[in-house]
Backbone:
């Protein structure tokens, strides 16, 4: 199926991190506290939130999906709707902010592979279908994401991975997305991987999976992945990293106008300093708004993690657009300004006519996808073009000679990475300076 080009302004939202108890708030669910948090989010002018049930709390036994937990999720969605906020729900948490949340029925004495065991798959599918069905009649329910970066469980560097092949990962994703669709037909159901799917050779979750399975492609952009360290916080590479992932994903998409959701992006300290967070936020949003067919931008995250909670990586405590007591931070102010400006004067971006050719090996498994990561030839060619003021996108080498594919995407110029041997502008310098 081919979708029409997007002509309306993208959606703007935030990943909701509760101020009271972080995602452990489901244990002591306080709807009044949730309402206050949602009020502070709505005041920024945002239109949606992404929320995270904790899988072990909602499904503590393979055949027990707690009705009270589902009721709490529905109450949260209703409270958001009262404030004009739509809600996307992630199911299998899975992994959040360096912590893993696996139910006891797939661990230790009950160890079973979460991607391949038939009983586990039955349980997961029932859980996702149940959550989706509970929300199917809510008009502000956007849809389900299978889970948050669940691909990190499938291989290194996870300390105890659930091994899977690319074929098994693809089969698992299709079954899980189908379960969401069965629960709530026609909503925006998809899956989301951290950037190993795009950058790490041999990783079982592949770019093909992200760009072909589900109703949209989700990308998660974090410059602590080597981008900020290699090129600098104020570099073209850091400012354009989110836009790069959006455009890179299109190389694998079968639909030339498949929507792409920048589902996570944030300003992580110390790679992005507190003094630079607002500038980085504005630069990132400006870059991605120049990407055709962008479904939306969902910032990570709404509120800072309470420092009374222990053992988080330091950067997790300061990623919020608002403080833990709901005061707006400079990055939150900058995002609110960018959202208001985009809605007031929205014009759909023109096609990106210059495409970097991506030779990552077999297009389904992408065995050489590290060429796309920081330091790789595709990454650096894209950033050199962007630094010179071009608006690059990406195309697979397998499709570089397909005239109909290029025409459908508006591509008129191909650039092979070996053609740009020297940058005309150092990648450590942003061409537009401070925004």
Residues:
């Amino acid at each position: 199926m081919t979708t029409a080009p997007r002509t309306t302004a993208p959606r703007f939202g935030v990943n909701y991190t509760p101020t009271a108890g972080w995602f452990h708030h489901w244990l002591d669910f306080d709807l009044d506290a949730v309402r206050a948090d949602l009020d502070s989010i709505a005041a920024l002018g945002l239109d949606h939130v992404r929320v995270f049930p904790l899988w072990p709390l909602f499904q503590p036994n393979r055949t027990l999906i707690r009705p009270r937990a589902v009721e709490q999720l529905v109450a949260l969605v209703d409270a958001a709707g009262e404030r004009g906020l739509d809600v996307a729900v992630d199911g299998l948490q899975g992994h959040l902010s360096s912590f893993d949340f696996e139910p006891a029925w797939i661990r230790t004495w009950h160890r079973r592979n979460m991607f391949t065991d038939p009983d586990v798959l039955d349980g997961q599918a029932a859980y996702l279908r149940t959550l989706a069905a509970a929300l199917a009649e809510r008009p502000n329910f956007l849809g389900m994401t299978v889970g948050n970066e669940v691909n990190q469980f499938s291989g290194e560097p996870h300390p105890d991975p659930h091994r899977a092949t690319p074929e098994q990962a693809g089969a698992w994703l299709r079954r899980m997305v189908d379960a969401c669709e069965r629960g709530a037909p026609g909503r925006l159901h998809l899956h989301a991987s951290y950037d190993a799917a795009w950058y790490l050779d041999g990783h079982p979750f592949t770019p093909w999976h992200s760009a072909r399975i589900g109703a949209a492609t989700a990308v998660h952009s974090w410059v602590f992945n080597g981008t900020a360290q290699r090129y600098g916080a104020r570099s073209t590479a850091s400012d354009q990293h989110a836009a790069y992932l959006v455009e890179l994903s299109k190389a694998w998409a079968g639909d030339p106008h498949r929507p792409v959701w920048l589902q996570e992006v944030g300003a992580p300290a110390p790679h992005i300093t507190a003094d630079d967070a607002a500038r980085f936020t504005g630069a990132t949003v400006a870059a991605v708004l120049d990407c055709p067919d962008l479904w939306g931008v969902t910032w990570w995250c709404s509120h800072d993690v309470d420092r009374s909670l222990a053992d988080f990586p330091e950067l997790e405590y300061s990623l919020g657009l608002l403080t833990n007591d709901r005061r707006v931070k400079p990055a939150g102010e900058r995002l609110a300004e960018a959202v208001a400006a985009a809605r007031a004067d929205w014009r759909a971006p023109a096609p990106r006519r210059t495409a970097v050719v991506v030779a990552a090996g077999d297009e389904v498994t992408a065995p050489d996808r590290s060429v796309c990561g920081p330091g790789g030839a595709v990454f650096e060619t894209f950033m050199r073009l962007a630094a010179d003021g071009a608006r690059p996108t990406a195309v697979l080498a397998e499709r570089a000679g397909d005239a109909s594919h290029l025409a459908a995407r508006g591509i008129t110029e191909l650039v092979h990475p070996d053609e740009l041997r020297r940058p005309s502008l150092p990648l450590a310098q942003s061409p537009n300076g401070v925004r």
Notes: Residues 230 and 374 are 8 Å apart (CA to CA). DSSP finds 13 helices and 13 strands in the chain.
